[in-house]
Amino acid sequence: MYTETMTWPQGKRCAALITVNLDAEYFWLQLDPAAKEMPKTLSMGQYGMLRGVDRLLDVLARYQIKATFFCPGKVAEEYPDKLRQIAAAGHEIGCHGYEHENLSLFSAQEQRRRLARAVAAIEAVSGRPCRGFRAPEGDLTLETLAIAKELGMVYSSDLFDDDRPYYLPLAQPGEEILEIPMQWANFDFPYLAFNYRPAFPFGQGRVSNYTNMLSNWKDEFLGHYNHGLCYVMQLDPQTIGNPGRTAVLEEFFDYATAMEGVWFATGSELHAYCEEALKQ
């Protein structure tokens, strides 16, 4: 059923899923609710929505890449014009919780209420079904994924246990969801996010060297390419969306798009393919 190297559509060598987490100010509010009274802290997340999204959309358009954006429901409610702009550009929008909360801290009933509200907000703004799920940076449970499936989401990109999409069994016999695993090394936020209060990272000591970050991304991409795997990149407009960092992202896309046989897919496109390729 599974092999080390997957077979991709039309003889492609590997798959690449470019994802964007629209955390806005809610990453900081989840980290410390007192940030509500810290305009300097909140402004970093707001920068991502007010400036970073536009730059990121421009880069994706130049390289003709369709990305999957994961959005908290509250962000869809507060920045509806940005969500419409993303959808109009042909990108997919999935669910990223309601307020970027740690879903594992809530009962199943409360998780269902929050995720249902998030899905409704995203679908109302985007005009499309919400098919993908990524939990916020807190924890989640298999129950969380079962609720996401119940609400119409058919794939998750949350775990770190493989380099290939696979079907993850859920609590009920016969129930499963497509999991598209990821890696921290391919996420801009751990390299670039920094704040004194609330402290992030808790031990301080970043922002990382951009050249080193780019080198890591290239090395990981080359490894996935050589082994025929699925490369998953995570970006956040508040960390990647300034002029210097978008230039780094462009250099990465120069590298990745120059390789022959890369399938840049959205989460839903990967799901549609895996429904055929992994269920034979």
Automatic annotation (TrEMBL):
A GO MF term: hydrolase activity, acting on carbon-nitrogen (but not peptide) bonds
BP terms from Gene Ontology: carbohydrate metabolic process
InterPro entries: Glyco_hydro/deAcase_b/a-brl, NODB_dom, PgdA-like
Superkingdom, natural source: Bacteria
Family annotation (PROSITE patterns): NODB
Domain NodB homology: 39-265
Protein name according to UniProt: Peptidoglycan/xylan/chitin deacetylase, PgdA/CDA1 family
Organism for this UniProt entry: Bittarella massiliensis
